C-alpha cells in the first residue's frame, strides 16, 4: 500500500472519475492508462464505482487505484475490500479518519478553510485535497495557505482544466491537481476512447513546478 504522498507523485493529474457502468469504467480507465495516467480516483457517486475498482485493482502493477467521494465509514471498508489502495474525501471528520485508518486506506482528505487544515494537521495529515479549489479561492488562496502551513502539500480539485493546471502545478505547495476534464461526458457517451487517451497524454505531460 503506497502512502498518499507517493500516490500524489504519480500525477501530475489525478482524474476524478464517475461511471454509468462497470464496463464503461474499465474502458475509460484503460484508455487513460494508455495515455500515461497511472493514478485513478474512482468515485462512489454512482453504483458502478465499487465494481470498477474491483475490476481495475491489480490490473496494472504500476497503477494506483483509489476511491473517491468517501463520506461514510462503511464506504472505507467496502472500497478497501474492492481493492482500492488509497482514498479521497471531499471533507474530513474524526469518524472518517478513524474508518480510513481502520480499513488501512491511506486518505487524502478534503479541506477548504484554515480551520479545516488545522483539524487535518491535528489528525496527522501532511497532504490534503483543496476542494472545491476554484470556487474556494484558487491560486490566491493556495498562496495564502503557504504562509501559515508551509509544510502542507495540496491536491487542488474543482474547476481546474488542462489550461489552468500548469499555474496550479507551479505553486510550491501543490503536488498534483485533480479534475474530471479528462473524461468529457460526450466522449464517454460516444465511447471515444482515443479522445480520452489524448486528453490523458496531455495531462501526463503537464510540467510540475
Ligand atoms: C471533485 O469531486 O473533485 C470535483 O467534482 C472535480 O471537479 P471538476 O469536475 O471541476 O474537475
Write a structural description.
The structure is a single chain. The protein has 209 residues and is of the alpha/beta class. It has a single domain, classed as TIM Barrel (Alpha-Beta Barrel). The protein is built from ten helices and nine strands. Strands 5-4-3-2-1-9 form a six-stranded parallel beta sheet. The protein has a three-stranded parallel beta sheet with strand order 6-7-8. Helix 7 (138-146) links the parallel strand 7 (127-130) and strand 8 (153-156). The chain is globular and about 45 Å long. It starts with a helix and ends in a 5-residue tail after the last helix. The model has no long low-confidence stretch (mean pLDDT 96). 3-phosphoglyceric acid is lined by residues 16, 131, 157-160, 178-181.
Amino acid at each position: 500500500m503506497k502512502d498518499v504522498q507517493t500516490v500524489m507523485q504519480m500525477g501530475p493529474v489525478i482524474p476524478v472519475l464517475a461511471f454509468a457502468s462497470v464496463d464503461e469504467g474499465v474502458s475509460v480507465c484503460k484508455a487513460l492508462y494508455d495515455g500515461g495516467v497511472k493514478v485513478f480516483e474512482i468515485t462512489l457517486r454512482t453504483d458502478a464505482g465499487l465494481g470498477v475498482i474491483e475490476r481495475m485493482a491489480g490490473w496494472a502493477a504500476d497503477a494506483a487505484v483509489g476511491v473517491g467521494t468517501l463520506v461514510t465509514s462503511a464506504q472505507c471498508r467496502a472500497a478497501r475490500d474492492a481493492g482500492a489502495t488509497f482514498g479521497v474525501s471531499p471533507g474530513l471528520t474524526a469518524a472518517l479518519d478513524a474508518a480510513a485508518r481502520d480499513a488501512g486506506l491511506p486518505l487524502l482528505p478534503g479541506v477548504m478553510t484554515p480551520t479545516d487544515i488545522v483539524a487535518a494537521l491535528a489528525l496527522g495529515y501532511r497532504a490534503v485535497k483543496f476542494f472545491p479549489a476554484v470556487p474556494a479561492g484558487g491560486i490566491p488562496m493556495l498562496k495564502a495557505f503557504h504562509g501559515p502551513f508551509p509544510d502542507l502539500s495540496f491536491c487542488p480539485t474543482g474547476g481546474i482544466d488542462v489550461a489552468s493546471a500548469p499555474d496550479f502545478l507551479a505553486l510550491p505547495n501543490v503536488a498534483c491537481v485533480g479534475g474530471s476534464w479528462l473524461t468529457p461526458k460526450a466522449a464517454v457517451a460516444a465511447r471515444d476512447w482515443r479522445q480520452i487517451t489524448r486528453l490523458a497524454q496531455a495531462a501526463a505531460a503537464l510540467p510540475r513546478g
